[in-house]
Design brief:
The chain is α/β, with parallel strands linked by helices. The chain has 3 domains: 3-88, Arc Repressor Mutant, subunit A, CATH 1.10.10.10; 92-160 and 265-302, D-Maltodextrin-Binding Protein, domain 2 (3-Layer(aba) Sandwich), CATH 3.40.190; 163-262, Periplasmic binding protein-like II (D-Maltodextrin-Binding Protein, domain 2), CATH 3.40.190. Helices cover 41% and strands 24% of the residues. It is built from 10 helices and 15 strands. A 5-stranded mixed sheet has the order 4-3-5-15-6, covered by helices on one side. Strands 11-8-12-7-13 form a 5-stranded mixed sheet. Strands 10-9-14 form a 3-stranded antiparallel sheet, with no helix packed on it. The longest helix has 29 residues, at 60-88. The protein is rod-shaped and about 105 Å long.
Length: 303
């Protein structure tokens, strides 16, 4: 017996005073309604309804059972209505994960615009350069840069990160400029440790893909820390264009222009394709819209 269904049937019989009326309302056979009530009475061990040829009414136990379960059903209906609304209306708390540098430079201000568009959503932005466990950390959506290897995640492509080989003029004045990717083996190369390829840098050039294992005296798991080291003239880095802005023209020098570091995809990832809430769909569509309109992030040209 479905106890919740039986409880709902019992309440409607009390309220309508008729098995046949409830049967018509629920599109069931009258005998099924009667059998459901009999099963509930058997489960409780009491008689809930008095039946006559013209009317059905509650017994004393039935009135008490109805009264004591009325608030429960009302609260359950309210909860179900709220969750039903969430399926179609963007509402509720949304936990969003993102790498630190990208989140600060490209997501934070867009989240403010997102909240203006969807005032019933509350955003909690969690910045972390690690690929955290979305389910374990309670993350609804995460923005990730790089290839997605976790087959348990659903990924939606949002954009592309183009990258450059870059250093400060002061560094090149002391050590010279590399002319080929192989020359990087003799330079102090600053490594971003959260990148899947680590200290192996990949380039696309006239002769196709080239891979170079680099070394240096400084590595970090945060892109903005590496940015400061590059600006300070500590060494050479491979970094996304969006990390520097106008500093690429004013404070830094790009080298190896004929050998482009492999671009990295930008994805939004979430745990499951089933039961995707309206708030998650709203964020995915919003980010797709905003990134597609940003020349530094758009992947439209690569489609």
């Amino acid at each position: 017996m479905d106890r919740l269904d039986a409880l709902r049937v019992f309440h409607r019989v009390v309220e309508l005073g008729s098995f046949s009326a409830v049967a018509r309302e629920m599109a069931r056979a009258q005998s099924q309604i009667s059998k459901t009530i009999a099963g509930l009475e058997h489960h409780l061990g009491v008689r809930l309804l008095v039946r006559s040829t013209r009317h059905v009414g509650p017994t004393e136990d039935g009135r008490e059972y109805y009264s004591r379960t009325l608030d429960f059903l009302r609260e359950l209906d309210e909860v179900e209505h709220e969750f039903g609304r969430r399926r179609v209306t963007p509402v509720g708390r949304l936990r969003v994960g993102c790498p630190v540098g990208f989140g600060r430079l490209h997501l934070a201000h867009r989240m403010c615009e997102f909240l203006i568009r969807y005032p019933d959503i509350e955003v909690e932005l969690k910045l972390d350069d690690r690929f955290v466990d979305l389910v374990g950390e309670g993350i609804d959506v995460a923005v990730r840069i790089g290839e997605i290897s976790d087959s348990n995640l659903i990924a939606r492509r949002l954009g592309t990160t183009t990258r450059v080989v870059v250093g400060a003029p002061a560094y090149f004045a002391r050590h010279g400029e590399p002319l080929t990717p192989a020359d990087l083996r003799t330079h102090n190369c600053l490594v971003y440790t959260e990148l899947a390829s680590g200290s192996e840098w990949h380039f696309e050039g006239p002769e196709g893909l080239q891979k170079v294992r680099v070394r240096g005296n400084f590595a970090a798991n945060n892109s903005e820390v590496l940015r400061e080291a590059i600006l300070a003239g500590t060494g050479i880095g491979v970094a996304p264009n969006w990390l520097f802005g106008n500093e690429l023209q004013t404070h830094l020098k790009v080298v190896l222009r004929e050998f482009s570091p492999r671009p990295l995809p930008i994805h939004a990832v979430y745990p499951s394709r089933r039961h995707v809430s309206a708030k998650v769909r709203a964020l995915l569509d919003f980010l797709d819209e905003k990134f597609s309109g940003d020349a530094d992030l758009s992947h439209l040209a690569s489609r």
